[in-house]
Amino acid sequence: MPQFPPSAGPSGRRVPRGRALVVLALLLPLAAGACGLLGAAGVERPSVSLDSTRLRSISLRDVDLLLGFEIDNPNALGIRLDGFDYRLSVAGTQLAEGDRREQLSIAAGGRSRADLPLSVAWDDLAAIYRSVRSGAETGYRLDAGFTFEVPVLGPVRVPLSRQGDFPVVRLPRLSVRSLDVRRVTAGGAELALALEIDNPNDFPFTLRELDYALELAGSRVLSTRDAREVSVARGGTERWELPVSVDFGQTGRAVAQALSSGGRIDYRLTGSADLTAPVEWLEDTRIPVDASGRVDLR
Asked: In angstroms, how far is CA 258 from the centroid of its own chain?
């Protein structure tokens, strides 16, 4: 059996082996406790939650989404977000995936927000909608990971998973049902345009803040905003009457002759409006407005 020499004390004198083992046994718990205190000295992992989801705008090309995250730092020291990765799926089909590298400082004991703007092709989302048989909503799943630099702990990745409802949005159908000629003078005309709005969705919505331009007989007659709102029931139809003032000095003789002679006239109405509905994601979503055809003058 091997023999271990006695240990040397601070003064250089040898300490009996038995006494050295006793001292070591006393010091080890103290050392372990010190390490535990260092790791638990008020230093915790930050928390992240999905705070808001919004479809910001829809066009015939792109759909812009905005995800908002709330970050909570429970520590007595500041931390730093270095970036995050994400994957968003709708109805079981991956819609977006990527990494966002940006730094954000969060004060001690503070909270902050991080936003993730996403742009996806309308055709990709429309293909998902076509696979959904019916209903106002389908499911979505978000998987993300947030990387922080935390004092004592170093780099920390905080995962986040969230599932919820995603709206199945079908753009409203718009058409000009009538164009009433209220007054015609040598310099212009006052008209009333009845815009019919058809809601093909399984939820009601409200349209407001209509920015639009109107062409009659191929000439631009006005470009303006109507701040009023109109609510349309699920599967319903409503009319929105728009006042139109025409300046013949700006539009030319073709419009003046068409309005004076009556009959039918070509029109095109283009612009955008805010859509809000009582479903998740849809709050002041900007949608396109585009209607064209021929209408009877009355």
From this structure: 45
Per-residue model confidence as pLDDT tens digits over 95-140: 999 999 989 999 999 999 999 999 999 999 999 888 886 677 899 9
Distance from C-alpha of 119 to C-alpha of 64, rounded to nearest angstrom: 4
10-residue mean pLDDT series, the chain (298 residues): 45 49 39 41 88 94 96 96 96 94 94 95 91 82 97 94 94 93 91 95 95 93 94 96 92 86 90 95 95 91
Spell out the residues 6+ positions from residue 80 whose beta carbon is closer than 8 angstroms to its own: 103, 104, 105, 106, 148, 149
Phi-psi map region of 109: left, alpha, beta (phi>0 left; psi -120 to 50 alpha): left
Q: How far apart are CA 262 and CA 237, in angstroms?
A: 28
Distance CA 215, CA 221 (A): 6
**pTM (2 d.p.):** 0.78
Q: Compute the distance between CA of residue 64 and CA of residue 80 in angstroms, rounded to an integer.
A: 27
Residue 297: CB partners within 8 Å, gap ≥ 6? 179, 180, 181, 258, 259, 262, 263, 264, 265
Q: What is the dihedral of CA 125, 127, 129, 131, to 10 degrees?
A: -150
Report the half-sphere exposure of 234 (CA within 13 A, side-chain side). 8
How high is the pLDDT of residue 26?
40
The residue ranges of DSSP E strands in 73-204, in sequence order, are 79-90, 93-100, 104-106, 111-121, 137-150, 154-167, 173-184, 188-198
**How far from 122 is each of 10, 98, 130, 254, CA to CA, in Å?**
77, 18, 12, 38
Query: For the chain, which domains are there?
Result: 47-167 (2.60.40.10), 173-296 (2.60.40.1820)
